[in-house]
Amino acid sequence: GCRSKHQFVRSSVGPFFISLILSDLLQAIGSVMNIRWMLIMGVEPGHFCIAQAALKQTGNLGTALWSLVIAFHTFSLLFLRRPISRKLSCITFFAVWIFLGIIIMLGPVIIENNKKGPFWGVSGYWCWITNSYHIEQLTNEYLFMFITVGLSFVLYTLIFLRLRGNI
Left if phi > 0, otherwise alpha if psi is -120 to 50, otherwise beta: which for 127? Predict the structure, then answer.
């Protein structure tokens, strides 16, 4: 039969993959913004700095979350041998983007306080969550990355063993 050139985008994994690529793009844009700091030979607080921090955090966290979603999707298909329904795919897509938005906005809207200063700002050689919010650097970003790495390792190891016929 004739296959649509947009079939991948309409598949259950298509939106997840596109979201992963978009998250990577946001992180890359945030990193390219470092050119400004090189040109002025320093990092300065301000709107540009806040934009870079938001892009980097959104990109990093989004990449972690979408990688994990794809790992679970792959696990469901290859280990459990159960395809993801269109409904579950749509729910997952919107839930992850909403969750990502909530986590990103928690810092500057709820966590930020006058005692510690701005949530997003100068953080070493670029702008990100400032060093005054060290715990939030761990919980709002690194924790998700470590969970993604750990769970992905377990899921892909199980898939590998299943495909080899060991389990």
Answer: beta
Q: Is residue 46 part of a domain?
A: yes
Domain, as residue range, for 66 = 7-164
**Total domain count for the chain?**
1
Give me the residue label for tokens 């980097």: 56
pLDDT under 50 in the chain at which residues?
Answer: 1-2
What is the rounded CA–CA span in Å between residue 61 and residue 161? 29
Tokens 């301000």 belong to 46
Give me the residue label for tokens 């990193």.
31
In a domain, 2, yes or no: no
User: What Å distances lie between residue 153 and 5, 23, 110, 147, 158, CA to CA?
Assistant: 32, 21, 33, 10, 9
State the CATH number of the domain containing residue 38.
1.20.1070.10
